[in-house]
Amino acid sequence: MVREAADVDDDTVRSLGDPALIASRVTLLQQEIAAQRVACFEAQSAAHAGHAVYARRGNLFFKASDPGRVVKSQQESLQRLQARLDSFEKDAS
User: Fold this and answer.
1) Residue 62: phi, psi to the nearest 5?
2) Which domain of life is it from (predicted)?
3) Where are the domains of the chain?
């Protein structure tokens, strides 16, 4: 039995149709989006100031050699997370 939304992928959460599991996935995505927004802001601020830029991949951060590309990549990751959240919120309603 699945106990947490983090234990399975999006399709499995949807196919199980458990409202509590879907709500848990929505909460998880909201937390990931909040962290990704911080990563975007930090990358943009560092790039603007000419400092070293770090990219976020899940829970890992690494120093990047191309600040502009990192900022764009971080924003794209944020957009993908937001699309996943929107999809789950639509399914929940």
Assistant:
1) -140, 150
2) Eukaryota
3) 5-88
Model pLDDT for residues 66-87, shown as the tens digit of each residue: 778 888 888 998 999 999 999 9
Give the closest residue to 35 by CA, choosing from 67, 68, 81, 90: 81
**DSSP secondary-structure letter at 59?**
T
**Phi and psi (nearest 5°) for 17?**
65, 15
pLDDT of residue 30: 93
Bridge partners of residue 54, in order along the sequence: 63
Nearest CA among 83, 31, 22, 90 for reference residue 4: 22
Q: pTM, whole model, 2 decimals?
A: 0.76
| E-state strands within 1-93 | 53-57, 60-64
User: How far from the centroid of its chain's Cα atoms is residue 38's Cα?
Assistant: 11
